[in-house]
Amino acid sequence: MKVRLLLFALYKDLAGLEEVEIDVPVGATGSNVVEVLRARGGGLARLPERPVIAVNREYAALDTELFDGDEVALLPPVAGG
Q: Global pTM?
């Protein structure tokens, strides 16, 4: 099945792209998506193993099951002052 992945800020810089569509097996979770991305190497290998994610614009746990056509966003830490 296909999921659309959105990357922001530092993650976008590491990956060199804002969004990508990836294939994952039925029953895949947010963690599986991160594993697939990190396995691609390059800047993607530097993504954290446990980033904050949102699925279909709502914060979600990494063990959230994904479905065909879902949108997964990797949300980098935010600092401010």
A: 0.89
- Between 17 and 63, where is the model more confident? 63
User: Torsion angle of alpha carbons 62, 77, 75, 64, nearest 10°?
Assistant: 10
Q: Do the bridges between strand 2-7 and strand 71-75 make them parallel or antiparallel, or are there none, so unpaired?
A: parallel
Q: Could you give the percent of the chain with pLDDT greater than 70?
A: 96
- The answer to whether the Cα torsion of 6, 23, 32, 11 is positive or negative is negative
Question: What are 33-58's pLDDT values in tens digits?
Answer: 999 989 988 888 888 889 999 999 99
